[in-house]
Amino acid sequence: MTVVPANGGRIGSLRVAGTELLRQGERYGCFPMVPWCGRLAHGRFRNGATEHSMPLNSPPHAIHGTGRDTVWRTARADKDEAVLYYDLAEPWPYPGRVTQTFALTEESLTLQLGVETYGDSFPAQAGWHPWFNRRLGDEDAGEGVRIAFAPEWQEVRGEDHLPTGRRIPPGPGPWDDCFGMPDGVDVTLTWPGRLELRVTSSAPWAVVYDEQEAAVCVEPQSGPPNGLNTDPLLVTPLEPLEMTSTWTWRRL
Questions:
Q1: Whether pTM exceeds 0.90
Q2: Which of 225, 186, 247, 213 is nearest to 11 (CA)?
């Protein structure tokens, strides 16, 4: 595994038995989504009576937080563990710290995110946005990855790509959709004859995106897109936001 603190604290590479699992490129790999996940409607959210505006980096919305555009600092790093952090700053209006931990074994990777405040309470979200290669090895050979999961519901997506608040039984892909998994995220990706990778998290939400030919995304997150407005979780001086996801793999 290669972690890139200077490029948003993202995982730049993850290789199993010499095979790269993540799409390569400065925008790809696996980046943390913090202090919000997915699209934030028109870049606005409220904390009590105060409204804040974030830059519209995916007009007409703000998307995926500020952490992926930030230089993270390295607190500790060795051959199988790393700890990165950054201090929340403009354009985010509240002071605080985000910490990200990576723990690697021969068969798994465990990721942790923590968001804490230095002052006032504020709403926040956390999650990860991995870009898994649709095919392993030769991109023109072999069968593409299969995605298997059993969510309780699918959020209806409006024309603005935001959840409408209406829930329906999960439908077939292709997806750019948010799913509810109240017992925790549990999604299995299988590259037939090559590798099986299971993404789990105690978090109850996942966005699945498979509309591109090169890669698919399975994104465990603490709340749905636009959740700062529709399903806010408060970070308080006594209660930080903590998020964990584990990827476990086996060769087939």
A1: yes
A2: 247
